[in-house]
Amino acid sequence: MWLSKKCQYALRAVFELAVRNIGQPVKIQQVAVAQGIPPRFLELILNQLRHAGFVESRRGSEGGYMLAQDAAEITVGKVIRCIQGPILASTDYKGGSYKGDGAFARLWQDVNAAVEDVCDKTTFSELVESERAARAVCPLDYAI
Asked: 56 is in which domain, residue-wise?
């Protein structure tokens, strides 16, 4: 499955906002640094996510961005569709007149449906919990 850089950044931005989901806005610079996203590009992405209803923004010195919905309501599939359109694990296989073309066309349809299903069932709250569980098992070691 191919995801544009913009889509990858959008997923990481929503993830970061889900991690920091404490009811307070998060500054663009904080998200950009934490996720390695160019701040100017992140601003455009967050604006698109705001128009789609995933995030909301607050102005002022205490302003920033925060999730507009509960992280358990936002799926990976919804964000991917918002940023780059349909979820496709493989290109649309048309087939031709060779043996097996129909079988392969059905195979790729099934693969696409399976990937779409996983993305639609995976919420950002699940991703945050998975990350926290992984870090609890393997704590970071800063020893030099």
From this structure: 5-134
Classify residue 49: in a domain, yes or no.
Answer: yes
| Closest C-alpha to 11, from 37, 40, 30 | 37
Count up the domains in the chain and report the number. 1
Return the CATH number at 72. 1.10.10.10
Residues 72-110 have pLDDT tens digits of 999 999 999 999 999 887 765 666 667 777 788 888 889
pTM score, whole prediction: 0.85
For residues 30 and 34, what is the distance between their CA atoms, to the nearest angstrom? 6
What are the b/e assignments for 104-139, b being 16+ CB within 10 Å?
eeeebeeebeebbeebeeebbeebbeeeeeeeeeee
